[in-house]
Amino acid sequence: MKKQVTNDGLAVLKSAIARCRGNVVAVLIFSFFLNLLVFVGPLYMLQVYDRVLASRSEVTLLVITGLAIGLLAVYAMLEIVRSRILVRTGVLFDSLLAGNVVNTAFRGYVRMPGQSYSQAPRDVDSLREFITGAGVIAFCDAPWVPIFIAVCFLMHFWIGIVALVGALIIFTLAVMNELLTRKALGEASSASVAANQYVSSSLRNAEAVHAMGMARAVLGRWHDLHLDTLSLQAVASDRAGAVMGSFKAVRMSLQVAILGVGAYLVILGDISAGTMIAASIIMGRALAPVEAAVGQWKQFVTARAAYGRIKTLLSAIPTDKERMSLPAPQGELTMERLVVAPPGSNVPTLKGVSARFAPGEVIAVVGASGAGKSTLARALVGVWTAAAGDVRIDGAEIEHWDPEELGPHIGYLPQEVELFGGTIAENISRFGELDPHKVIEAAQIAGAHEMILRLPDGYETMVGDGGRSLSGGQRQRVALARAVYGDPKIIVLDEPNSSLDQEGEKALAAAITNAKQAGRTVVVISHRTSLLSVVDKVLVLVDGAVAKFDRPEVVFAAMQAPNSNVSAFRSPQAPAASA
Ligand SMILES: Nc1ncnc2c1ncn2[C@@H]1O[C@H](COP(=O)(O)OP(=O)(O)OP(=O)(O)O)[C@@H](O)[C@H]1O
């Protein structure tokens, strides 16, 4: 079987755009009628000047005023509906995209840590805000600019010429605005993303920053990044300000010009006074979308950069395709010449590991710091993928399992325990359907039940962001309960006892024995020897390779031997050999 991963992340984006297309067409149709109704004002003016004032007819004034008010009411209604369609389009686009983008960010973080994944949801927000805001309306009205100019030509050739020249000047200024500000705004946006990211990672380490007096240094670093953003934004704003200043001057000059030319044509008797006023209003209207687009340019640039980042993210991180459903695993783990390099690195930290762990076996993985133990744990649960060789569960390559389907059969306790904001019960149940019996059972197996009951709100205790309201040992016990929740077939524990006290260690040993008796495969990574009494086999890793894989007494006998190749792992005391 081949790996069924594909690079069709962009398909999600394309499909979201396609689903919104109907709404965009509706908005354009509404824009058409709205722009037609814009003629109500100038036409009313024309009629008042040329008909009512000339005929002094009150009835005509009343009728055309009533008509104008009616049409303006229709205008208001169309405007409301258009804006509601835009809001719904933004929400639809967001709902189609946000979940996928966040999911891709998660997968991206696993495959390529260190990139700016936290920016992804904010980018979807920027796009939604742009779609629902005034920017899009300006862009929807822009196609009608030529029609307004054509109407100016219908009024009089020279009025048309003034409107056309005006539109060309303003369009040139808009293009200049884009050319002058594009680079600076793009760089400012990247600098701002970098500064925000630096702040979020520093805040996570706020305690260390405070304790070791690093605040000034950290702030200094952030300040440099922030200054970059500010100076680039200032450059862009200065340029945009200059363009906007000229823009306003040009627009006012054009109003003067059109009235001047109009008045001259009235003097010549070519047009009426009403036409002159109507032309001035129509030209103002023709230039309004261009002016609005320039005013909204920054939001447009922000949305464009967000779109670019989302596109890059979706195309860079391969989408997991639907995989064939496999039967629930029994828990046999095999590694065949497994080579693993950390994401983003091509230096392997596991170099051809081969081993077989049978269901019901407890394996201890030991080795010096940096030997590759956590790498092996990550590879066994499918977090890091094999550069060569493979990891198989019940004979099937781990990549062929759907992570959502395999997940409930896997218990994983990472070296750095992170809980999620929510209650202890929710964390133990992995934020799935909450079955109180299963939660308590898992907590009891992990030896966490009594400890949880002693907390003020018991299982309902909120653990805070990352589980910060719990102590390190409490966090580790809750995470162990999460790992054994639902009786998974394979349990991988990376340093599960690093923060445990004696009582916790006993509970952990009991949990491992319990899992073994239930026929589960348990892989436990530990620097401490206390757990080694409950293991069946010990796998010694030295520099990413298996130095020894045998029963504990054999391994420890080998370790005592002079010139042993497993001497990289030194246990303070050899454990009692288990059965
Ligand atoms: N995300 C990473 N990116 C790059 N290199 C990494 C990454 N994680 C680990 N390494 C490297 O891989 C090697 C093995 O690391 P690993 O965490 O597997 O060791 P370990 O045996 O679990 O160590 P320890 O007992 O200290 O936890 C180390 O040399 C480490 O520098």
UniProtKB/TrEMBL annotation:
Predominant location: membrane
Keyword Membrane set for record: yes
One MF term in the entry's GO annotations: ATP hydrolysis activity
Domain of life: Bacteria
Pfam families noted in UniProt: ABC_membrane (PF00664), ABC_tran (PF00005)
Alphabetically ordered keywords of this record: ATP-binding, Cell membrane, Membrane, Nucleotide-binding, Transmembrane, Transmembrane helix, Transport
Domain ABC transporter residues, every copy: 333-568
One of the protein's GO biological processes: protein secretion by the type I secretion system
Residues covered by the ABC transmembrane type-1 domain: 25-302
SMART domains assigned: AAA (SM00382)
A GO cellular component entry from the record: type I protein secretion system complex
Cellular localisation: Cell membrane
UniProt-listed PANTHER family: ATP-BINDING CASSETTE SUB-FAMILY B MEMBER 10, MITOCHONDRIAL, ATP-DEPENDENT PERMEASE MDL1, MITOCHONDRIAL
NCBIfam families, per database record: type_I_sec_PrtD
Similarity-based family: Belongs to the ABC transporter superfamily.
Protein name, entry field: Peptidase
Organism: Salinarimonas ramus
